Amino acid sequence: MSETIDFVVRHGYAVLFVWVLAEQLGVPVPAVPILIAAGALAGDGKMSLAMALLLAVCAALASDLVWYQFGRQKGASVLSVLCRIALEPDSCVRRAEGLFERHGARSLLFAKFIPGLSTAAPPVAGMFGMSLRRFLQLDAAGSLLWAATFVGAGYIFSHQLEAIAAYATQFGTGMVVLVALALAAYVALKFRERRRFVRSLGADRITPQELLSKMDAHEELAIVDLRHPLDYLPDPRILPGAIRMTPEQLESRHNEIPRDRDIVLYCT
């Protein structure tokens, strides 16, 4: 265990940068513990507080800029990439869109404090035309606020965290293995839940080609466009005869949907 601590002390800056970069790109590894650990090392004089903050902000900005450019160049299709790498992509994308609808560009100031939104917010900002300069200003401020909060917490409570680390050292490598297993179990559980959800929807899905065939055959259909208002802005086209409403309006407006025919819902 002492060798592990020595490794973290020797390579702390590289570990901090790579870990934050990976988490912000969408890899399911939490960055908060490493930020707190960096603050604790700074409080113990083993790391520069200013350098820790700078590296964390630079890592977050680098990954966010990648997602911003994806969103700006690829539009809504970037969300399909998120669906492949995130553990809970659908909910985080919806939360990001709702956040931007309510708070606009200022959402970038606090998006990183909401699980899942760190990855979803930058491409949404790019999708809806935020200028690069405005994005960098707000994202840098939000990244600094986020990093300072957790690095600062580690710095303030460094002595208490050092005592906890010393206690954990008594358990040797078993503690490291236990933490690694717990993290792996969490990721596996989320992945299993998502796979189960996708399989449950499989039987009820219809492809665009199948829908087009039904429409060309003049079948009686009730088509409901459930796209979020922000999804609708870059592509305002709508399927002929479709009823537009948000998922939140389904309960209050369900009487508008005919019950005497097949109902087709689409949201992207």
Protein topology:
Blueprint: H1 2-10, H2 12-25, H3 32-43, H4 49-74, H5 78-85, H6 89-103, H7 117-127, H8 132-156, H9 158-169, H10 173-202, H11 208-216, E1 221-225, H12 229-232, E2 243-244, H13 250-253, E3 262-266
Parallel strand pairs: 1-2, 1-3
Summarize this structure as a short list of keywords or feature phrases.
mainly alpha, 67% helix, disordered N terminus, single chain, 4% strand, 268 residues
Give the gist of this structure.
This protein has 13 helices and 3 strands; from the N terminus they run H-H-H-H-H-H-H-H-H-H-H-E-H-E-H-E. It is mainly alpha-helical and 268 residues long.
Q: Describe it for me?
A:
The protein is mainly alpha-helical and 268 residues long. 67% of the residues lie in helices and 4% in strands. It has helices at 2-10, 12-25, 32-43, 49-74, 78-85, 89-103, 117-127, 132-156, 158-169, 173-202, 208-216, 229-232, 250-253; strands at 221-225, 243-244, 262-266. The chain has a three-stranded parallel beta sheet with strand order 2-1-3, covered by helices on one side. The longest helix is centred in the last third of the chain and has 30 residues, at 173-202. The chain is elongated.
Order of helices and strands: HHHHHHHHHHHEHEHE
Structural class: mainly alpha
Helix content: 55-70%
Mean pLDDT: 78
